[in-house]
Structure formats: structure tokens, C-alpha cells
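pls read this stuff:
=====
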Amino acid sequence: MLGLTWCLCILNLCSLALPAQAQGQVKARAADFIVAVVNSEPITNNEVQSFKLRLEKQAAPGSAIPSSKVLAQQALEQLILEKAQLQQARENGIRIDEAEVDLAEANIARQNQVSKEELRKRVSAEGLSIAAFREQLRNQLTISRLREREVDNRARISDTDVEQFIQSKQTSGVAEAIPIDLNLAMILIAVPEDASDKQVIELQTKAQQISERAKSGENFANLAAAVSQAADKGANGGEMGLRPADRYPSLFVESVQNLGKGDISAPVKSGAGFHILKVLEKKQSELSNAKVVQTRARHILLRLSNDLNERSAIARLTSFKQRIQSGTDFAELARQFSQDGSAQTGGELGWASPGQFVSEFEEVMAQLRPGQLSDPLVSRFGVHLIQVMERREVPLTIREQREMVRNQLREKKMDELYTSWVEELRGRAYVELRDPPQ
């Protein structure tokens, strides 16, 4: 999901992208004219120039800024894409109601640590009307909803995708890869140090024949006992034992990276001779260095209704915060007033890993120290007062590690699908370019 993360750039309010419909709210420029038409809807020169200003202000300090002409073309293309997506959303019946825009506005104010009134003052100081600002929020939410419907739901990641990613990361030596354990069995056909080229070829042929016999179904353990020249003479069927992959020679790990349980490798040449390997077991390590910081928190939730608006809920929770700081028990207030299932446990939410709560809740919770109280926080569920009780670092379970990989792959796939989808939408749109932006 795109969510509202794009709104974080509004901290200085200068990087806010203005929608096509709202550009006329910016300080007027003389002699405006149409530069493009997208499916019968115009884009004006003033719109392009406003978007161009946004691109200039978004540039990192000290970075090279493209020429004015290039920036204008970039701005025009982005406006064309936005226009096409909004038109598609209307055709699909996507509508964003006032309550959703209200919540988006409240979230931006919270992210910038200002009140809604202060946010609106800053918007007005930038020359943008409140109506135009809210229209921009509506457009961004509309495009996000369209993306969810048209693209994100098609980004499915299978268990096979996850397993292949884990194996490729492990064998490529990437530090953050999820560890795996291997149990390999080996047959060694030794090559003497002074062996001639002819002898080496003969021994390689012998090893290849043994590999093919094993692949055709002959018992590997019996073959190992009969022909292996390893130090243990093939005892235990050549089994070397379950251990982390990094405790096997890298040559062995690389040779079995694409093999599954029960598969046999081709002969692998080392300084000792030719090795035939069988994968007896291959799994994610139970002993992983991957850890996650969990938070134990509690909250008081007041749900908004006809009888309790946002302003009143914030005032009430502000009063609760003052009482708690003066010595009133948080848990007792939660049991009396919190309007969710945690009330009976004094507002306790248990140990939570990242991603367990909605983003607006987690962003505030993550900034609190143990024992610290938040200011009242508006979320999609109502208004919260949060207290972090303690934190701990715990190893990720195998399931959690796999879910992290799955989410990572899904995000990448969604971005790829979205890029392709937008390009296709742009190709279907009728775009008439008129006078170039000035």
C-alpha cells in the first residue's frame, strides 16, 4: 500500500504536490495556457510550473538539479500520470469521503507534531487554500485506493518464492540472509597428490559413474560404505551431520545450493579428490542471529461518535495524562474508560513486534521511552493515550523470518507491477501535447 507515508515530506510544506484540479489556488501567474490534454481534461502551464517548483524543492541539498526545461518535462509527465490514474479511479467508482480526508489531515498534523489548526496556517502561508489542500489529500488517497485494487492484490508470493530467495541469499554470502542448516552425506574418490592427468581423468570418470548410480536410485549409504575413500571409510553412510551451512566447506554449500532434500550432486573437485554429495536435510537454522525489538505497551482508547468528537476526546485524554502524571493508576483509568477489549486488563496490549499495530499508532509508540506517556493520538480507530512499559530484543522465530522475507518480496513485486501498470495506463490514454511549458 502507498498509505500516507508520502505526506511526511510536508514537514516544511514546500514540497507538497498540488493536484491538477487545485493548481489554480496557487498565486496566479499571468497568461496561463493549456500545455496538454489527457482524455479531454486539460493540464495548464501554471500547473506544470507549480509541480516544477515542487521538484526543485525536493532535490537533495548540493545535488545537481536538471535544467529548467528538463524539470518542466518531468513535471508534465507526472501530471499526465496523475490525471490518468484519477480518471481511471472515477471510472472504477472509487470515492473518498470527507471522514477519510479528515483522518489524513489529522495524521499529517500528528506526523509534523503540530495541531490541525497550525497545519492549516502553514498551508495558507504557502499560498494554498484549505480546500485545495484537502483536494490534494483526496487525490492521493484515491490513487492509493486504485493501486490497492488494480495492482497490490495481484502481488502474491508463494512458499517456493520465499525458499528460493532464502537459498540464494544464503549461498551468495549476504550478511543479512537467513541462516540454514545442512546435513550432507559424502562419497570421496581420492586423487593422489602425484596423480597424472590420465589418472585424474579416470578417477573423475569413476566419480561420475558413482554419482549416476546414486541418482538412478542405488542406496547412497551402501555406495558410501563400499567405495568412499574418506577418513571414516563411508561409516554412517557418509553422513556428516546437521550443522549450520557456514560450517561446511563453501565448495560443498555452493554445490548443493540449488538441490533439494534427497538430491545428489555431480562430482565436486577439491584438493582431496572428487566428492559426491547427497542432501539429507536442508532447513532454516533454529539458531538465528536475526532479532526483533518488541514493545510492551498499554493504552486508553476513546472511540469517536456523535456524542464524542475528536476535540473532546483529545481534551479528555489530556486530562487523563495529567492525572496519571500526578499519581493516578493508568490501569485503573483504562479499566474504567478505555473502549476496547484491552480495558479489562488495564489497557495492556502484550508484547508486540513491529507491524502488529496500525502505522499511526506504531510511529508514536516507537518514539516513547519505557514509562513515558504519549500525547493523545488520533488513529483510524479513535483517539489513544499510550504508555510504553518495557522493551526487549528477541530472536525471530523461523516463521517470523519467513514472513519478513515474504513481505520484502511482496513489496518489490508490488512496485514492479505498479510501474508496469502505470506505463500501460499511460499508453492507453489519449494525450495531446500542445504548447510546451514556459
Observations:
- The domain at 291-395 is CATH 3.10.50.40 (Chitinase A; domain 3).
